[in-house]
């Protein structure tokens, strides 16, 4: 297949998938692949889940798109559901994580502007973070390579070392609007933020009159075994949160959720989206949340993630201590760190050849993010495939 007329921003391998079911994908040759990356934490219930397919098909026969000029079926109801399950009081629906982050940033600045502090525009973020590819989101992110060649950096974005509490306290001044953080870093190497740190951030923001923003685009939607990752801990709820990926189960859906005191400063005309929260997205979003709000489904996620982590720990500590350093992540956003630079990319390609799909992250980490309805048997199959690839790498070391 020729890619001559596509922007050369991706370089996919010579594999063409034509069908998916659950955690399995079929390539045009007929070869089966076990999918443990799920479109980068997107396919909450795997490929072609019948409940999501049915919800989309049913809505597609009624209304597709109206734009937010009109009341969109299911939008107010889905907002109600997420507000009842979280700290939030207002929701704005978009299409992607980048859009959700953009509105979070705008909301933080607008809040201070409307409260008589227009100088409070600075957003503090952290090394290793990833908040999206749009221009403000990439400026807010902690990876300098994503800014190369795109002109001057935007003002108002401050990057600090991950976990440097002294630097954080020193960076806060009368121009600080918000702190932006992922409760579990994805691209930065599957680094969870400890409970004490999230609670400390909440306290610091309250003391300094600034806002706390969580980016749960990747670690939310049940991926860690709670609806949102920060809900594992008490007294650390944010003022604004960006959500996407898994909340749509594979259909483009994202949203920003905030307290009323923040969201209500975004008056008519301050923000909008043509496609955001359309009727198709709402139908799938409701069907997906039916699973994510179910305690039994969360119990399943925690059970299979415990088995996956235990298997990875055994590989790291007992079988391949010369190759691997540690297990990283939380829940079904988990992986393992190699000791050798670039070995994670080598593992990914070897795994692809073996029929196993994984991702990579920063700090030499292999990233695993299977569908949340993955079975214990499929987890055991995955662990066996990981073992086989690591054995080949170890033999060639």
**What is the element string, with H for helices and E for strands?**
EEEHHHEHEHEHEHEEEHHHEEHEEEH
CATH superfamily of the largest domain: Type I PLP-dependent aspartate aminotransferase-like (Major domain)
Share of helix among residues? 25-40%
Number of strands: 15
Strand sequence of the main sheet, in spatial order?
A: 4-10-9-8-7-5-6
Q: What separation lies between the terminal Cα atoms? A: 35 Å
* Sheet/helix structural class: alpha/beta
Query: Radius of gyration, Cα only, in angstroms?
Result: 21 Å
Tell me the quaternary state.
single chain
Query: Which descriptor suits the 3D outline?
Result: globular
Q: What's the structural blueprint in terms of helices and strands?
A:
Elements: E1 17-21, E2 24-27, E3 32-35, H1 38-41, H2 50-60, H3 75-85, E4 90-94, H4 97-114, E5 122-126, H5 135-140, E6 157-160, H6 165-171, E7 176-181, H7 195-208, E8 211-215, E9 240-243, E10 254-258, H8 260-263, H9 279-292, H10 295-319, E11 324-330, E12 333-338, H11 343-353, E13 356-357, E14 359-361, E15 365-368, H12 376-395
Parallel strand pairs: 3-13, 5-6, 5-7, 7-8, 8-9
Antiparallel strand pairs: 1-2, 2-3, 4-10, 9-10, 11-12, 12-15, 14-15
Helix pairs in contact: 2-9, 10-12
Describe, in plain words, how this protein is organized in 3D.
With 397 residues, the chain is an alpha/beta fold. The chain has two domains: 134 residues, Alpha-Beta Complex (Aspartate Aminotransferase, domain 1); 230 residues, Aspartate Aminotransferase, domain 2 (3-Layer(aba) Sandwich), CATH 3.40.640. The chain is 37% helix and 17% strand. The protein is built from twelve helices and 15 strands. It has a seven-stranded mixed beta sheet with strand order 4-10-9-8-7-5-6, with helices on both faces. A four-stranded mixed beta sheet has the order 1-2-3-13. It has a four-stranded antiparallel beta sheet with strand order 11-12-15-14, covered by helices on one side. Helix 7 links the parallel strand 7 and strand 8. Helix 10 runs parallel beside helix 12. The longest helix has 25 residues. It is globular and about 65 Å long. The mean pLDDT is 96.
């Amino acid at each position: 297949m020729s890619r001559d007329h596509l922007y050369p921003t991706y370089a996919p391998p010579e594999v063409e998938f034509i069908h998916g079911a659950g955690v399995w994908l079929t390539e045009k040759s007929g070869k089966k692949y076990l999918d443990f990356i799920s479109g980068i934490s997107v396919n909450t219930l795997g490929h072609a889940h019948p409940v999501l397919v049915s919800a989309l098909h049913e809505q597609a026969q009624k209304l597709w798109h109206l734009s937010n000029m009109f009341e969109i079926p299911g939008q107010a109801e889905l907002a109600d559901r997420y507000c009842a399950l979280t700290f939030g009081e207002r929701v704005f629906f978009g299409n992607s994580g980048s859009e959700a982050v953009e509105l979070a940033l705008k909301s933080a600045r607008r809040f201070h502007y409307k409260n008589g502090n227009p100088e409070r525009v600075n957003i503090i973020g952290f090394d290793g973070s990833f908040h999206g590819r749009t221009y403000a989101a990439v400026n807010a992110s902690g990876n300098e390579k994503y800014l190369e060649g795109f002109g001057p950096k935007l003002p108002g974005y401050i990057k600090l070392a991950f976990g440097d509490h002294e630097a954080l306290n020193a960076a806060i001044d009368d121009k600080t609007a918000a702190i932006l953080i992922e409760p579990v870093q994805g691209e930065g190497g599957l680094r969870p933020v400890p409970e004490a740190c999230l609670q400390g951030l909440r306290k610091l923001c309250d003391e300094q009159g600034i806002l706390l923003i969580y980016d749960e685009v990747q670690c939310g939607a049940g991926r860690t075994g709670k609806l949102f990752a920060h809900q594992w801990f008490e007294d650390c709820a944010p003022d604004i949160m960006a959500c996407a990926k898994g909340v749509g189960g594979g259909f483009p859906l994202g949203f920003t959720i905030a307290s009323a005191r923040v969201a209500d400063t975004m008056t008519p005309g301050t923000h909008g989206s043509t496609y955001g929260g359309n009727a198709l997205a709402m139908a799938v979003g409701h069907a997906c949340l039916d699973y994510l709000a179910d305690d039994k489904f969360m119990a399943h996620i925690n059970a299979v993630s415990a088995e996956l982590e235990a298997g990875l720990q055994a590989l790291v500590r007992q079988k391949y201590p010369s190759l691997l350093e540690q297990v990283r992540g939380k829940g079904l956003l988990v992986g393992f760190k190699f000791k050798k630079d670039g070995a994670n990319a080598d593992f990914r390609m070897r795994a692809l050849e073996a029929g196993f799909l994984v991702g990579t992250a920063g700090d030499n980490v292999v990233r695993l993010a299977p569908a949340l309805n993955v079975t214990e048997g499929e987890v055991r199959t995955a662990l066996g495939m990981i073992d086989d690839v690591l054995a080949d790498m170890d033999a060639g070391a």
